[in-house]
Amino acid sequence: MKHLISMREVSKDEIIKILQLARKIENREITPNLSNKVMALLFFEPSTRTRFSFETAMKRLNGEVLTLTGAEGTSIEKGESLKDTVKMMERYADIIVIRHRLEGAARFVSEVVNIPVVNAGDGANQHPTQTLLDLYSIEKTQGRLDNLKIAMVGDLRYGRTVHSLSYALMHFNPMLFFVSPKTLSMPDNIKIDLKDKGINFEERERIEDVINKVDILYMTRIQRERFPDPTEYELVKNIYVLTKEMLKDAKDNLKVLHPLPRVNEIEESVDSTKFAYYFEQAENGIFVRQAIISMLLGEV
Amino acid sequence: MERKLKVDAIKEGTVIDHIPRAKALDVIKILKLKEEDIITIGINFSSKKLGRKDIIKIENKELTEEEVNKIALIAPDATLNIIKDYNVVKKIEIKLPEVLEGIIKCPNPNCISNNEKVISRFFVISEKPVKVRCAYCERIFTSDEIEYEY
Prior knowledge:
A: 9 helices; about 35% helix; B: Alpha-Beta Plaits; SH3 type barrels; 2 domains; five-stranded antiparallel beta sheet; 11 strands; elongated; transferase (chain B)
């Protein structure tokens, strides 16, 4: 694996290898050392967790981090193309991590530079490192990845995390439930790919229809910033709110995941239940990103 | 005999036959034929196979199968005839290539290929009906959603 751009092209073996490596890093069985390496974090779109998580991961590996956030005060504001920006960064850094509002931006960058590129989110398309930490969290809490019942709830149309996760789960024979209003349903291209791979999925509009039968409830935020029409956002923004009461008949092993940040979709009362796992999930991201960076830089 | 009067036979070159009606000029644009090429265009000929068809004859130029396959999206039934000394020496059915580069424009305005200087690239995932996937934004489009770049 030279780059990490899309879960569509990460094989089952590669997924398993990354998760095993993350486990060894978490358990301190191995401690890769990247003391002579520099990572460029190019965040053209806002981020808290992903950026800090990558930064923490690189620092724990003893590497250095260069960070660009937004375009203000940079040559991009002067009209520099993305290509020129990354051609320059490749001279400074050993690996590029990029988040960009345009879909395919990370792929494009991987084609113009000669160092590894990690996609940290490209518009509504993909967010593969989030997916790998989601898989790590699922495996850690369920003891396996195969044959699980998994519900994804919320903005399935614009939510890149659920797109990447759906692709990755195709390797593990899941039963998927897509819970969303019709206007925010899973895109056709992903449903076509799921059908081609023989993956069972159902589309629903209410969390209550699935909550008592699933092993993983993957909540997502309705993303105001991706709506072309603000009225459309207002109509759906509070459509799903998970409460403690809704979990009273849930399966014992159920875990609620969320890529965070949350707005209103999970009530705080859920945080203290045995089902809540989203903060641990965020922590898992550091081990998984340590594994990905070390692997791409050939240090493990 | 009647047809020969309409469009002269060529001695050497390439004839692209069975182009859907009114698509001949689009085919010329896709093939990026140059000003100095000698081209005869026939539009709206009667055809047993298509009802009506267009035809293009390019003199003294032998197009390759790979070049002509680029037109498969708009002319899926076209045939390529290589002419030598007034005779058809090779007849090739057009096939949709696995990858289309620089031919179609991604319909997704949020795709990087519409915002940076990028040569578009699409993977053909189904021929009938035509479905292509953008190599950049990874979305799938059908033939009626596709826009051409020429």
